[in-house]
Amino acid sequence: MLDILLSSLGQLFTLSHLLFMVLGVLVGLVVGIIPGLGGIAGMSLLLPFLYGMEPTVALGMLMGLVAVIPTGDTFASVLLGIPGSSASQATVIDGFSLAKRGQAARALSSAFLSSMIGGLIGAVILTGFILIARPLVLSFSSSELFMLTLLGLSMVAVLSGRDLFKGLAACGLGLLVGAIGMAPATGEFRMNFGLDYLYDGLPLVVVGLGIFALPEIVDLLVKRGSIAEEPCKLGEGWRQGIRDVREQRGLVARCAAIGSLIGTIPGLAGSVVDWLTYGHAVQSAKDKSEFGKGDIRGVIAPESANNACACGAMVPTLLFGVPGSGTAAVFLGGLLLLGLQPGVGMIETHLDLTYTIIWSLALANILGAALCLVLARPVAGLTRVPFATLAPLITVLIMFAAFQATRSTGDLIALGAVGILGVLFKQANWSRPAFLIGFVLAPGAEGYFYQAVQFQGADAFMRPGVLIIGSLILAALFIPLLRSLWIKRRQASSVGAASTDRTEPSTLGVIDVVLFAALLGTAIVAWLDVADLTLIGGIMPRLAIAILAVSCLMEIARCLMHRPQWEHQAIGLQGLWLVGFFALVGAMQLLGFITAATLFCLVFLLAIARLKPWVAAVMAFGVTAFLVGMAEFLTLTYPSGLIDPWLFG
Amino acid sequence: MMINKTATSKPTLGRLKKAALLGLAITGLGLTTSVQAQDVEVPGNIKWTIPFGVGGGTDVWARFFSPWLSESLSGEPTLMIDNVPGGGSINGANLFAVRAKSDGSDWLGTSASTQYPVMLDDPRVRYDYSDWTPILATPTGGVVYAQPSLGESADTALDALLEQPVKLAAQNPTGVELPVLIALDMLGADVQAVFGMRSRGEGRLAFERGEADIDFQTTSAYLSNVEPLVEAGKAVPLFSLGVLNDEGKIVRDPAFPDLPTFNEVYQARHGEAPSGKEYEAFRKFFASGYALQKLIMVPKDTPQALIDTYRQAARDFVDTEAFKEAADAQLGPYTPVIGETVQRHLDDAMSINDATRDWLADWLQSEHGAKI
To answer: Mean pLDDT lowest for which of A82-91, A633-642, B152-161?
Structure first.
C-alpha cells in the first residue's frame, strides 16, 4: 500500500507530468474564465490529443483542467454576475453584490483561497475514502437520492425568507420549466408545443444566463455608471478577503466536507451542492440580513464546496464508470480513450493511477488558485470601468456562451425569453435562485421519485437513510422558525414591550400584478398541454403547476387581506433594452452571428458609450477575432445569415 | 468555417488536375486506362459529424478510429470530429441530412439511438438511411445477468425468472434495451422495466444496489464491471444476445463462447426456434442496435471510387495485429464489418414492415405503458 502511494507521488513530480498538468491548468483557466464554456468544452479541446498518450501524463493534463474550472469560473460570477458554470451559480448572488459594492477584490481573493482549501480537503478525504467508498455509494438508493433533491428544494424556503409564497411560486415555475422535454418514466414528450428545440428541455446554461446575467446587464445599463457603485479599494479588499477566509475557517471545512461527500453520489453532484452549502451558510449565520446583498459567507461557502465536489465526483466515475457530473462524463470518455476501463479495477489493478489522479487534482488546485489569486487584484479593476463600455462585450459573451448549449438559434431566443422573466423577477424582487433551484432539481426529483416507488414500493420511505435526510429537511425548515420565535419571546420577556415588530410593510407593484396574471396564465396553458399525458408521465408537471398556482393564489390572498403599500416598479427602460436584445438576435439571423456582433459592438461603443472611434474599432475587431478564433478551436458553426459566409468563409 | 472552405475547394482542384493529367497520359500514350479506386483524390479535411456529446460512447469510438483511418488514407487527411448533440442524436443526424456535401468530405457516425427512431417512425426524424452509404460498422454484444438470489446457476435463475415478476432498470422504452425487453418477454418472463436511467451504467448501479433483479450490459462494460461481480458471486450470467455472422445468422458471441445465446435458450425452453412477429422485431432491433451498433456513413452521392477508397483503407488496418490489440480494449473482441456486407445487413435490419411495427406499438403500450 505504502509503496503504491509513494510511487504515484513520484509520478506526480516527474517533469513530463508536471508540464502537462500546467498545460491542463492553463487551458482550464482560460476555458473557466470564458463563461459558458466550462469543463465539457475544455475536455473537448484536450481530447483530440489524448489517444496514444502515456496514461499518467495524460491524466495529469485532464486533472489540471478538471481541478481549475470551478476556480476560474468565479471571475465571471463575481465580476460580471454571469454564472460561469453550474458550479458557480450560488456564488453569483453574493459575489456580484459585493462587486457592486466595490468589494470585488475581496470577494475574489476569498473565493480563490476557499476554493484552494476546499480542493485540498477534498483530495485528502478522497485519498482514504476511495478505498472504502464502494459500499457507501451503493447505500444511496433512488429513495435517498430523491430525499437529497428534496433537501435541495427545501433551500428555497431558507432563501425566500419573508416572501415565502413568491419564492414557492418561483420554485414551482422552475419545476415546471424543468419538466419540459421527455418524461423520464414513460418517454412521453411534454410541453414542447411542437418546437424541436424543446424536446430536450431548456439547457441549464441558457436558463442560468437568462435568469441572472441578462437582468443585471439591463439593470446596469439603465442605471449607468460602473459595476462598482461604491469606491473600490483593490489592495485592501484583497487582503480583507484572505482574512475573511481565516475567520470563516469552520465554514470552509464544513462546506468542503459536504462538497466532497455529496460529490461522490452519482447523478446529483454539482447541481445541489452549491445551493445546499449556500443554504447552510445562511442558516448557520447569526445575522442573515446581508445575504443576497453582499455577504462574504455567501461566496466562501459554495466556493469551498465546488472544488471539493469536483474531487468527490471522481469516486463514481472511477469506481463505477458512472459520471458524477458533466465534466466527469467527458473525463470518463478520456479514460476510455487512454484504454482504461473504469470499475473495480481502478482500485485493484490501477491504484497507482487512481492516486495520481487524486493528487494531481490537489496539486492543480493549488496551482490554479494561486494563479487566480495573483490575477484577482488587477482583474477586479474591471468593475471600475464605465459599464456602457463593457456592456456590448458582455452581451456578445453571454450570447456566445448560450449558443454553446445546443449550438442552435433556439438558444439565443430562449436566453431572451428567460431574460424577460429574469428582469421581471429582479424588478419586482422575486427570488431568482428559487426559480433556478426548482429548474435544476426538477428532473432529479421526478426521476428518483418514480424509481424509488417502482423499485421499492412503500418501503422506499421507511429506509434509515431516507429518515435521516427527512429529519434534516424538517430541521432546515423549522429550526430557523423556532429559533426566531424563541428569540422573540425572550426579548419580549426581558425588554418587555419593546417593539420587535420592525418588519417593513409588504409592498405590491405593477410588475407583481403582471407576474400573477402571467404565472396563472402559464399554469392554465401548461395544465391544458399536459391533459392527455399518462398518470405517471404527467404527475410532475401537474404537481409543479399546483405549487405555482396555489402559491400565487395564496400571495394574492395575502395581499388582499393585508392591503400592502403600492410601490412604483420601473419597467419601461428595461423593456426597451430587452427589445434591443431581441433586435440583436434578429440581426444575427439576418446578417450572421459574427457580422451582427461586430457591428453591434461598434455602434454601441460609438453611440452609447461614446468612446473614441479608434478605441471602438479596436474593441469591435477584438470581438470578431475572438468569435472567429473560437469557431476554429471548437469547430463551431454560428448562425450564418447573409453576410458571414462572404466575410468569414 | 474556414476549414470547411478549404475542405471543399481542395478536392475539386485536385480532381481537375488529376483529370488533366489523365487526359494527357491517354492521348500521349494512346492507351486506355481505368481509374483505380486507390487513385482517387481524398479530401484534405474530412468533417466527421458525431451526433453525440464529447466523451460519450460514440465520440470515444470516433476518436479511437480517426488516427487509424487517417493514416491508412493517402495524404493522411485531417479528420475533424464535429459533435452535434441533442435529441438523442436525432438533431445531429437531421443537420447532417441537410448540410452534408457529397464530395467525400462529410462523414457521419451513428449509433443504435440514431437507427432506432427511424425504425419506430419517430416524427422528429428528417433523415433517411437510404440517402447514405455505409463505410464501416462495429458490432457489440451484450449479456443479461441476474441476482444470485434468483438462483445460483443460470438454469435455476432462469427458472425463478419465469415464475416471479422481476425488475430491470432501463433508459427509456425505445432505448438500447428494447431487444432485451422483447427477448425476455419471449422467454416468458414478467419484466417490470423501471425507466429513467441516464445510462446503462446507472442501470448497473441499480442492480448492484439490489434494486434491480436482472440487468443487461454491452460487452465492454460487462467485461470491466460485471465480470468482477460474477467472480465475487454477486451476479449470474444468463445468456448473451449473440452476434450476427456474414450470412445474417445469430451465433455465439466470441467474447462469451461459453454463454448460450438467447436463441439457444429459447430453443431449449420451448423446443423450437424463436419465430413470429416478436422474433422479427427482436432480430431487426438486435441487428441495427448491436450487430451494426455504430456506423460510419457518407452521403449516397459521394463518388463510388471515393467510397471504395474509404472502405479499402478500413480493410487495410482492421486485420493488422496492432489494430486488433488496440481495438480489444475499445471495441471488444469483434472485427469491424466493412462495405457491402454492412449495406446488406443494414437494408435488412432497417426495413421493418408495418405489421411488425404495429405489434411493437401494441406491445410497448400494453407491457410498458409507452406510446410510440
So the answer is: A82-91
Closest CA to A42 of A33, A51, A31: A31
Q: Does B249 touch chain A (CB under 8 A)?
A: no
Specify the residue for cell string 466562501: A300
Question: Taken in order A599, A603, A608, A613, is the CA torsion positive or negative?
Answer: positive
The model's confidence at residue B11, banded by pLDDT at 50, 70 and 90, is: very low
Cβ of residue B98 closer than 8 Å to a chain A Cβ: no
In order of start, what are the domains of chain B with their CATH numbers?
A: 2-139+292-338 (3.40.190.150), 142-289 (3.40.190.10)
pLDDT in tens, B117-173: 999 998 889 999 999 999 999 999 999 999 999 999 999 999 999 899 999 999 988
Listed as own residue / partner, the contacts of B243-249 with beta carbons closer than 8 Å and 24 or more positions apart are B243/B139, B243/B141, B243/B290, B243/B291, B243/B334, B244/B139, B244/B286, B244/B287, B244/B290, B244/B291, B244/B345, B246/B341, B248/B287, B248/B344, B248/B345, B248/B348
Q: With an 8 Å Cβ cutoff, are B167 and A454 in contact?
A: yes
**C-alpha separations of A92 from A159, A212, B27 in Å:** 14, 8, 74
pLDDT, residue A495, reads 54
Question: In whole angstroms, what is the distance from residue B194 CA to residue A516 CA?
Answer: 38
Nearest CA to CA, how far is A377 from chain B (Å)? 35
A567, containing H or E segment: strand A565-567
Given a contact cutoff of 8 angstroms between Cβ atoms, the answer to whether A547 and A178 are in contact is no
Q: A350: which chain B residues are within 8 Å (Cβ-Cβ)?
A: none
B:166-205 residues touching chain A, CB 8 A cutoff: 167, 169, 172-174, 192, 194-196, 198-199, 201-202, 204-205
Burial class of residue A502 (count of CB atoms within 10 Å of its CB; 0-12, 13-18, 19+): exposed
By the 10 Å C-beta count (0-12 exposed, 13-18 middle, 19+ buried), A610 is classed as exposed
The domain limits of chain A are 2-492+511-567, 592-648
DSSP codes of every residue in B26-58: HHHHT------GGGSPPPSEEEEEESS-TTSHH
Give the H/E segment covering residue B216. strand B214-218
- From CA A35, how far away is CA A81, in angstroms rounded? 10
Contact yes or no for A539/A183 (Cβ under 8 A): no
Q: What is the pLDDT of residue A501?
A: 44
Residue in chain B closest to A141 (alpha carbons) equals B209
Mean pLDDT, all residues of chain B: 87
Average pLDDT over residues A289-303: 89
Mean pLDDT of chain A: 86
pLDDT range class, residue B308, cuts 50, 70, 90 = very high
Which three cell numbers, joined as nine digits, stand for B197?
436511467
pLDDT of A484 strictly over 80:
no
Residue keyed to cell 420511505: A461
With residue B231 as reference, give the H or E element that holds it: helix B227-231
- Which H/E stretch holds residue B113? helix B112-119
Chain B interface, best mutation among A37, A43, A190, A322, by max B CB count within 10 A: A322
Q: Which pLDDT belongs to residue A583?
A: 95
